[in-house]
Please model this.
Amino acid sequence: MSRGNVPSRPPSVTPSPAAEFDVRDLELTKPTVFRASVNRFEHLNLSQAWSLWLTGGRDDGLFGIRPSMGWLLTGVMLAIVMLIALEKLSTGII
Model:
């Protein structure tokens, strides 16, 4: 029996795209704060700044590119500091 136009079966093990990915750019393996683009005083929004701080300088995209999450974290941090100061003032510790 002839097979005609029947496509050949794929191999049982196909390499994944991640296995074929080869990182040769050493710039990508460095922490974000040591990359050349950041060292050229690239503008960072609040979300990127919080992301860098919370990840130890490894990732500036933890909260995305929109600054709204950065504003939220900054507002929460300021509210906490003000509440602690208000409590200390009301108890007479300061």
Observations:
- Helices lie at 17-20, 36-39, 46-54, 68-91.
